[in-house]
Amino acid sequence: MPDKARHAANGAAQAVDCVEIPSAPEARRVAGTGLFMLLAGGLLAIMPQAPAFGLARPPSADAVAHAYVQGRLALSEDELAVAAERFGVALKTSPDDLLRRRALDVAILSGDMKAAVRLAGQVRLDHERPGFALADSLVGLIRLSGAAAARDWRAYEAERLALAESGRTDGANPLMGAVLEAYGLSARGQHDAALALVDPARAGGIAASYFAEHRAHLLALAGRWPEAAEAYSGLVAAEGANVARLRLNAVSTALKAARTEPEWRDRAILALGSGPQRDPVLMAARAAFARNPRLSPEALGGILARQQDGLALMFMRVAGDLMRERASGPALGFARIATLLAPDLPEAWLVTADVLARNSKPDLALEALSRLDRAGAWADVTPGRRAAYLSAAGRQDEARAIVARVVAGPDAQLEDWARLADIERQAGNHRQSAEAYARAIARAGEEALGPVQMAQLHFLHGSALEQAGDWAAAEGELRRAVTLQPENPVYLNYLGYSLLDRSLAMAEARDLIARAYKAAPENGAIIDSMGWAEYRAGNHAEAVRLLEKARAAEPGDPTVADHLGDALWRMGRRIEARHAWRAAQALQPDEALSAALALKLDYGLDIALAGKP
From the CB of residue 17, how many other CB atoms can be counted at a distance below 10 Å? Predict the structure, then answer.
């Protein structure tokens, strides 16, 4: 990767809040802080890593072994139908429990949840066994969810009790275990007991947030409309302003409540009119309400009618939260369970598609997304996601064609232009990327975005201009980003390194990088910039110290290894310098850096810098 592009990549593809911009392949982000540490050791740890293959050994019979090997090969090539068929053949010959688990993994990955329920029912579980396998908890959840989907609440309760007795819900209490029990009670008409289990006052942090949401759902299932409407209103006000589902819940239950308490109608209208103005689902609901002010609450799609739907929303939210925590492997199982419980819930398929895309399964992601093509307003969110999945898979032409059709229409939004800009950036078309970001900024000006979002757009525009070779225009945009967000280490580092690389305003460049380093002292790219600033200032010993730290943080970055080699050479440590340059060359740098490294290895640093031997 070019030197400047490397620094751009370190956070350059941060998404504007209202824009879903796929991460660049080269982007290096620091993982989240562990939202679900609360649940360590509980059910959130049970999921195989998308999926956790590698546990089973084929039975000894030649036919079984042959089918097993064929299944493994098909699986490695993402031929899931073939893999499922081959494992099925092996199971017919030898119904081995480990083979069942392997076939279950394939069923989950492919989304064949009927097969997953069947296979989970055949897997032998021993809850009393010491070291009860974490994966067995997933089997229990699938059994439980399969029973709920079939409305067999007696079987559901048996599976829930088995999970609870295994101890596998201990780490998740009072969240997962309590919510599972509450929906079982609700299904049996024991609404007061269900609500008592999900009292937000019983928990704190994220558990309280989950309890508050499911208390609202359970009130709706109990038909206690004024209480449900009040609960949903609190959710929307506190945390759900950008969640279309919760706002529709709030509006629909308020309209239900208005049948006995008329003042709720005004609150319903207010809730529907506020919130994100461009959300396609809310836009469709507003249009429907405008056409028919006496529209039934059910017609708006915000009434929860089945306990299965509430359970699906729980699994869906857990999947989404895990995905944001970079735990997209475990998220897949939860997302698939949500689709099993509520196959007509559009959001479940959206989350499933996103998880699959994060797991580098674009074809499966697109297949999941296709379930929304006839989902009314939800279908309006699919073009952007479809383009994002294709772009992340390297299918830039297909992605560009989708977004180009959108931006050519009269209703193109800021996020559409930003998405096109990102596709062009990933394709290396930096000039076209910059032009699209300029259009996004023009739209952002009309919509009066806040300083954080505007800083992101100006930064992305500036980095695209810089990589396109237009420094004169890029500098102004990068400076705007720093002015709007003066403590953002990514923006400081990019501007500082760009100045340093051009030998411009060297004192300012060093100060900008030093501020970035102070804010993010463990970021490998920023450590490298700080080390390179020391090198350019002639402080070679300090440069070596910092660049060795950067090398440890970014062992796969050829530019860091190249910088370290230069600093070592200046310190007279020439054997070590050549070793660093060879390491950089082995990391497959871009053409320009590769040529520079070849000169350094052949002739040394001074002659290489002169450009010719």
Answer: 13
Averaged pLDDT, 109-131: 79
Q: Which DSSP helix (H) or strand (E) runs through 54?
A: none
Q: Residue 169's CB: how many other CB atoms inside 10 A? A: 22
DSSP string, 246-265: HHHHHHHHHHHHTTTSTHHH
User: Which of 72-76, 169-173, 540-544 shows the lowest mean pLDDT across its residues?
Assistant: 169-173
* Helix boundaries (H) for 31-112: 62-76, 80-93, 97-110
Residues 6+ apart with CB under 8 A from 401: none
Q: Which of 6-15, 206-215, 505-514 has the highest mean pLDDT?
A: 505-514
Q: Which among 18, 23, 109 has a CA at the least distance from the CA of 326? A: 23
> Cα–Cα distance between 208 and 261 in angstroms, integer?
28
Identify the DSSP state of 203. -
Q: CA angle 436-439-441, nearest 5°?
A: 110
Residue 146 tokens read as: 């399969």
| Per-residue pLDDT tens digits for 420-478 | 998 898 888 999 999 999 999 988 866 667 889 899 999 999 999 999 999 999 999 99
CA–CA distances in Å: residue 281 to residues 77, 92, 242, 409? 37, 47, 11, 19
Cis peptide before 174 (omega within 30 of 0): yes
Rounded mean pLDDT, 137-157: 93
Q: Give the burial string for 577-592 (b: 16+ CB within 10 Å, else e).
A: bbebbebbbebebeee
Q: How many CB atoms lie within 10 A of CB 517?
A: 22
Query: d(Cα 9, Cα 28) in Å, to the nearest integer?
Result: 7
Closest Cα partner for 104 from 86, 89, 123, 90? 123
- One DSSP character per residue, 236-247 reads HHHT-TT-HHHH
Which amino acid is located at 350 in the chain?
Answer: L
**Residue 518 identity:** K
d(CA 144, CA 333): 13
pLDDT tens digits, one per residue of 35-92: 333 333 333 333 333 343 333 444 455 666 666 666 667 666 666 676 667 666 666 6
Closest by Cα among 82, 39, 73, 29 to 53: 73
Neighbours of 161 (CB within 10 A): 13
Cα gap 515→492, rounded to integer Å: 7
Lowest mean pLDDT among 43-57, 148-162, 561-575: 43-57
Whether 409 has a pLDDT exceeding 60, the answer reads yes
Burial readout 98-112 (b: 16 or more C-beta within 10 A, e: otherwise): ebbbbbbbbbbbbbb
* pLDDT beyond 90 at 168: no
Q: For residues 119 and 139, what is the distance between their CA atoms, to the nearest angstrom?
A: 9
Task: Give the torsion sign (CA, 414, 419, 425, 429).
Answer: negative
Residues in the chain: 613
pTM (two decimals): 0.70
First to last CA, the chain: 25
> Burial, 263: exposed, middle or buried (Cβ in 10 Å; 0-12, 13-18, 19+)?
exposed
DSSP class of residue 172? Answer: G
Residues in contact with 478: Cβ distance below 8 Å, sequence separation at least 6, in sequence order: 458, 459, 462, 463, 466, 491, 494, 495, 498
Whole-angstrom Cα distance, residue 116 to residue 109? 10
Give φ, ψ of 190 to 5 degrees.
Answer: -95, 70
